[in-house]
Amino acid sequence: MGLALIAGFSTANANQDGLGPKITLPENSEGKSCLFPSEQMRREHPDMLKHDRIQTLREGVRAQADGKVLDGSLKQCVNCHAIKDASNKFVRIDNEQHFCASCHKYAAVSIDCFQCHRDIPEGSGDFHALTNHKDVNYSNVAPGTYSLTTEDMANIAPEVISDDN
Amino acid sequence: MTINNENKNNGETASSAESSINLEASRRNFIFGSVAAAGLTVAPGMMLYQTANARSLSDFSLKDGASSKVRWGMLVNTTKEVDWNKCVEACNKEHGLGNEKDSRDDQKTQYIRVVDVKNKGTGYSMSLPVMCQHCENAPCVDVCPTGASMKRADGIVLVDRHRCIGCRYCMMACPYKARSFVHEVLTDQTENTPRGKGCVESCNMCVSRIDNGQEPACVEASEGAIIFGDLNDPETPIAKILAKHGGKQIRADLKLNPGVHYQGI
Known about the structure:
Chain A has 165 residues and is mainly α. Chain A is 33% helix and 0% strand. Classes of the chains: A mainly alpha (165), B alpha+beta (265).
């Protein structure tokens, strides 16, 4: 379903006529391209990711992705495609500005890559977006630190502790 | 778990420990030989690997993946005066462990357990780190219903979280109590160890470090008490020491042929 939608607006700039999702591209991405042309990436990236996760994890191939010399791990995708907001902080997956979310939200695609994987580059601080910390105001937290104010702590909803082991 | 904690041959293993120290100088080089410190340039201005012993693309496993010619293993020398908790700390830092907030202590993930054993007869006591033993005939791999618990070609046993359904059968099967289950939504994972709620996990011998030409984190933190290397290559220090002085596997009677060997137990 999501793929069909993506394929539908995969010609050139999908947002040119105001239709389709507004895909946020990383800074300085002008003139750069991903592994393959955008049209192909839009259509085939799920298969590529599935293929690469088997290659990297199960087969240990770390320096080659789809025939090209590149780290096939998802972290490589995230490191290139990370988006910064107006306050120069990386946006999380629950933000529509996030590269993945910018299209997936429009296409109603819910995938759970980022329940385990980082959604922003390492060392950039912040908690994960898919947790009960997501309502916390991070604006006072410097990148790379995890100190929260008492106000922030109050916003963190207690999670139900289950007894099953 | 039963650990053979008899104190026989203690003097002998202590002297063998000293001889193994001499090999420590070559510790840096024993994984892949001496490789120049040049990083691997993928594209202008973009470096993939910057470690001191980074490999070049022509090396076998970067391009071709894990090779069955290699069998990674570790040798733990428990006769050395080492604080094993340092290894645990290094492990936690490398894999981003310890970020559970609501789990009980016995639920929290640990890749390395420090086990204290005591011989009541003689009063001799010691402690040893017990992590995934990376068995050749791993019971966790046998029982996994989805193929998530797997052994890589180079002998590393790990969980493919893409396939893990969290049934915890492998935790039951493992005689070393090496596996943990993640009970809660996790925050701030490291980029090399994605981990999350509902999956079983265990020591993966720092597989991403190995693939980048580095030693496992616990080996680096162990001050030479843990040696890492290829068990299949008789020229590696780990194979030489094992050939000369021998080593023990925990619960060797189970015939699982673990890749982790111990001296002094």
